[in-house]
């Protein structure tokens, strides 16, 4: 079961569904729903609570469709990007880079396997990293509050939300699902040493 379940609609309505609001200075800005791909090229998207590395995340650019403008990721302020679980702030983004890494997932999501491994689509994306241990500490606290003390979270699917700001004062929001890995990878047994005599 996915915690904080969400329905990702067709990508045009996801990316181009915008709310316009008026800033005090009289300039119109946009609240944009963006396509987010956690661990581009991976499906499902695992997050190992024992990892000491980083979690890569991409905010995906989209093309113009007819008279509907696409989304240009260079308008995002990289220093504003944050990752949440529900209302819990998990981490702030580091190491931003503009590169083409993924294609938006266009189907509905009802489980961890609802994703794809499609790569470049010819449109620039904004990639960032989040330190895994920065994410894990507040995430485990939030899950304990939600599920009870010492919950069994190995294999649990949850939705993470990315937020940020654009240069014109607008905001962006996007979501993707991850699978929590608590036990880590099982190490294969070591092969027997042919030069060592067997134990009695």
- Total number of helical segments? 2
The CA-CA distance between the termini, in Å, is 49 Å
Structural class: mainly beta
By DSSP, the count of extended strands is 12
Task: Give a written overview of the molecule.
This protein has one domain (2-181). The protein has 200 residues and is mostly beta strands. The termini are far apart. The chain is built from two helices and twelve strands; from the N terminus they run E-H-E-E-E-E-E-E-E-E-E-H-E-E. The chain has helices spanning 11-16, 132-147, and strands at 2-3, 18-22, 28-33, 35-38, 46-48, 54-60, 76-85, 88-92, 94-99, 125-131, 157-166, 171-181.
Give the secondary structure arrangement, pairings included.
Layout: E1 2-3, H1 11-16, E2 18-22, E3 28-33, E4 35-38, E5 46-48, E6 54-60, E7 76-85, E8 88-92, E9 94-99, E10 125-131, H2 132-147, E11 157-166, E12 171-181
Parallel strand pairs: 1-11, 3-12, 5-12
Antiparallel strand pairs: 2-3, 4-6, 6-10, 7-8, 7-11, 9-10, 11-12
């Amino acid at each position: 079961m996915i915690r904080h379940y969400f329905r990702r609609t067709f990508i045009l309505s996801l990316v181009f569904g915008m709310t316009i609001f008026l800033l005090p200075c009289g300039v119109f800005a946009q609240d944009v729903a963006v396509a987010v791909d956690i661990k581009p090229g991976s499906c499902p998207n695992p997050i190992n609570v024992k990892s000491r590395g980083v979690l890569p995340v991409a905010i995906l650019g989209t093309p113009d469709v007819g008279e509907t403008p696409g989304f240009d990721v260079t308008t995002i302020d990289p220093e504003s990007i944050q990752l949440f679980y529900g209302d819990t702030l998990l981490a702030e983004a580091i190491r931003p880079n503009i590169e083409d890494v993924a294609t938006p997932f266009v189907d509905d999501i009802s489980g961890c396997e609802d994703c794809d491994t499609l790569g470049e689509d010819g449109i620039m994306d904004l990639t960032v990293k989040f330190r895994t241990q920065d994410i894990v500490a507040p995430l485990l606290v939030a899950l304990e509050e939600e599920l009870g003390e010492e919950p069994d979270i190995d294999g649990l699917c949850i939705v993470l939300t990315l937020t940020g700001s654009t240069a014109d004062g607008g905001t962006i929001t996007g979501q993707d699902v991850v699978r929590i890995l608590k036990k880590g990878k099982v190490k294969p047994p070591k092969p027997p040493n042919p030069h060592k005599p067997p134990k009695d």
